[in-house]
Every structure is written in structure tokens, then in C-alpha cells.
Amino acid sequence: KGGNGTNTNKSSVVALRQENQQVKNRLAFLQQEFATLEQQVRALVSDRRLTAMHHEEQREQREATEAAYLSKLSQYQQTIQELEDSLEETPISHNEDFLTLSERCTSLESANATLAMEARLQQQQYERCLDHIASHLVQALLNQK
């Protein structure tokens, strides 16, 4: 009887040691998994901050560009209005003066059209950049899962 109880105790101890080792291994694996997830979360938070800062910089650049275009447009419109007012106030006696003013108006209208086109191109570029950023965010979120 005494020998059988000792074997049972020894096998219980061995089983407990094996279970203890398995628990330790599982704990180490889970700790490593947690560290990996924590690192991924930190990277995503960092990416989001950088993306937000980049988005803010682009918005500020776009607003500055729009303000510059609007300022130039306003100047051109004012010049055109002054020329039109001048034409109304002063009868043109010489055909050459009329041609000069007409060429100036055409030049200003062309510059205005160029500015409008540049503004559209800037807007399209900005929208493509936003699409690119959104795509990266979606990809990062998908990679997180």
C-alpha cells in the first residue's frame, strides 16, 4: 500500500509540473502577443498623428493658395473694372489706344483663366492626396485586424 501511494504522489507531482510548465509557456506566449499588439497600437496612433498633422499642413497650404489666387483674381477684376470705367468715361479718339486697352483686357482675362485652371488643378491634387491618405488609413486599420 505504501509503495502505491508514493507512485500516485510522484505521478501527481509530475503532472502538476507539466501543467505548470504548459501554463508558463502559454503565459510567455500571451505576453509576447500582448507586446506585439501594444507595439502595433502605438504605431497606428503614431501614424494617425502624422496623418492628422499632414492633413492640417495640406489644408493650410490649400487655404493659403486659395487666398493668393483670390487676391490675384480680385486685383485682376479691379484692373478690368478700372479699365472698363476708364473706357466709359473717356471716349477713345484713337484706334491705337482702343487696341492697346483691348489687348490689356484680353491679357488680364487670359491670366484670370490661367489662375482659375491652376486653382482647379491644385484642388484635384489635394483631393487625390486626401484619397491617398484615406486609403493608407483603411489599409492600416485592415492590417491591425
TrEMBL record:
Stretches of the chain forming a coiled coil according to its record: 13-86
Keyword Coiled coil: yes
Superkingdom in the source lineage: Eukaryota
Keywords: Coiled coil
Protein name according to UniProt: Uncharacterized protein
